[in-house]
Design brief:
The protein is an all-alpha fold. The protein contains 19 helices and no strands.
Length: about 475
């Protein structure tokens, strides 16, 4: 019974947000609360929610202060050289812009933190997408999928969890998987090329001065059924359909568009928040922060809290300026933190009622006896839905040991099981249970349902390509 209710609850949530019948925050809170009452455990709802909030509180704190920190770094101009380089490569060609999005997301993903990747990628690319009238879900989909493949780095999380759960060495899991993951990353670039060609066909070649914005309340969904309707020209240059960017770092980073509509400015070189004399201090601080994250010198929330406080104090010693910078990024902070704590209700009920355990047991039990010798492949396939509907902790510490034990009974190495478990990460990064995805859709002004509807099929295909490559190379 709990197995069925668990799947029904998840399906209800996804259907409602994709049909835009409920906001993600409302759906994350109300649907699990209703199901908790329905299974007769309503009296324990408070305990489940508090336990979920307690488990996700460090993540919420990390994201809150990470947004402030990297928002300040964007304001002061730390990433301006990267952005200018990407913009020079992209020019006004939609194909180059989409490929550049994949490249930037993959490069920044080397730090192992999804929220960082999405903040920098959206801040750099949003102005171009917005000004040229390109589909913003193409940007979020490509960025999330590229980050998902790169999320398998040993310091990214999943590999370390798999190694810990099965008592293996992380290098023994990751290093042999490099060829398969490389194929997956190449596929992401191929996907970006294909989507970029569709955007180029829809929009044509434009100079930045000729570019127009899409004046529509709905996002353009490229790939959902051929080329969509042509964008409508807006009057003037301020745009009304995809969000705002007043050049102050609010929401999408500095200089998203000039407010007066006089041509395109991906970055405002004269914005008041720049601190060119402190460039190397900020670069050094960021390098130290990322190094401390990778070496686990301190918990990540603590590192970002201290980093944000130091960055604000040094770059903006005036109290009024500090308050202005915090206020500029408050919208993103509130949206993301609220979404994380709402997700805590969902995960708390799933775990507390036992739905996750019953769902996992049912899936493992449904595996035919004859598939025993192929448990590595089965694990790779199961990693797609399980890491999408469950947290990485739940999958790697709850389900993976069971799959490894079943594989061992048929002579399948735990290393093969562990490697196969990484396959689903490309899809996992668009899961509604991943806090970083709310940074991505929030900054890009994209509805979560639109992002899900567009991205899931491409991310799932990327994961299957990684699995096929692993099998072909004899890794899995």
């Amino acid at each position: 019974m709990l197995t069925i209710l668990g799947f029904v609850m998840i399906a209800t949530f996804l259907v409602l947000i994709m049909m835009k019948k409920m906001s993600p925050i409302a759906a994350l809170v109300l649907i699990p609360a209703l199901f908790c009452v329905f299974v007769g455990q309503g009296a324990k709802l408070g305990d489940y929610v508090l336990e979920g909030v307690g488990n996700l509180a460090p993540t919420a704190a990390m994201l809150m202060f990470a947004i402030v920190y990297f928002g300040v770094m964007i304001d002061v101009g730390l990433f301006d050289p990267i952005v200018r380089g990407i913009l020079r490569f992209c020019k006004a060609d939609p194909l180059r812009i989409v490929v550049g999005t994949a490249a930037l997301a993959a490069i920044v993903s080397l730090d192992g933190d999804g929220s960082t990747t999405f903040m920098i990628t959206v801040s750099a690319m949003y102005p171009l997408y917005k000004r040229l009238g390109m589909s913003l879900v193409v940007m979020t989909g490509v960025a999330a999928t590229a980050n998902g493949v790169m999320n398998t780095l040993p310091w990214g999380g999943p590999t370390a969890r798999a190694a810990t759960a099965l008592k293996l060495d992380a290098a023994d899991i990751f290093v042999p998987m490099i060829p398969a993951l490389a194929v997956g990353l190449v596929f992401v670039f191929v996907l970006a090329y294909v989507l970029g060609r569709r955007e180029r066909k829809r929009l044509g070649y434009l100079s930045l001065d000729e570019a127009v914005e899409v004046e529509s309340e709905e996002q353009v969904l490229v790939g959902a059924g051929g080329c969509d309707s042509e964008p409508r020209k807006s009057v003037g240059g301020t745009g009304t359909g995809t969000g705002t960017g007043a050049g102050t770092g609010t929401n999408v980073g500095p200089g998203a568009d000039s407010a007066d509509g006089e041509g395109f400015q991906g970055l405002d070189p004269n914005r008041a928040t720049l601190r060119p004399k402190l460039y190397w201090f900020n670069a050094g601080l960021t390098l130290v922060l990322l190094t401390a994250m990778i070496t686990e010198l301190l918990p990540i929330p603590v590192l970002f809290l201290m980093g944000a406080a130091l960055a604000l104090t040094v770059n903006y010693p005036n109290m009024a300026e500090q308050k202005a910078r915090i206020a500029a990024h408050a919208d993103n902070v509130l949206n993301v933190a609220g979404m994380v704590f709402a997700a805590a209700v969902f995960t708390g009920v799933l775990t507390g009622t036992g739905m996750v355990e019953h769902m996992a047991d049912w899936l493992v039990g449904a595996i035919p006896e004859g598939m025993g010798p192929h448990m590595a492949v089965v694990t790779g396939i199961l990693s797609l839905p399980l890491t999408y509907f469950m947290s990485n902790d739940g999958f790697y510490f709850g389900v993976l040991p069971v799959l490894a034990e079943a594989g061992a009974a048929h002579g399948v190495s735990p290393l093969e099981i562990a490697r196969a478990s990484l396959v689903g990460q490309a899809l996992h990064m668009s899961s509604p249970l991943v806090p970083a995805v709310y940074v991505l859709v929030g900054m890009a002004k994209v509805e979560f349902g639109d992002h899900t509807r567009f991205t899931v099929k491409w991310a799932a295909l990327t994961s299957l390509v990684v699995l096929a490559a692993g099998i072909a190379f004899g890794i899995i």
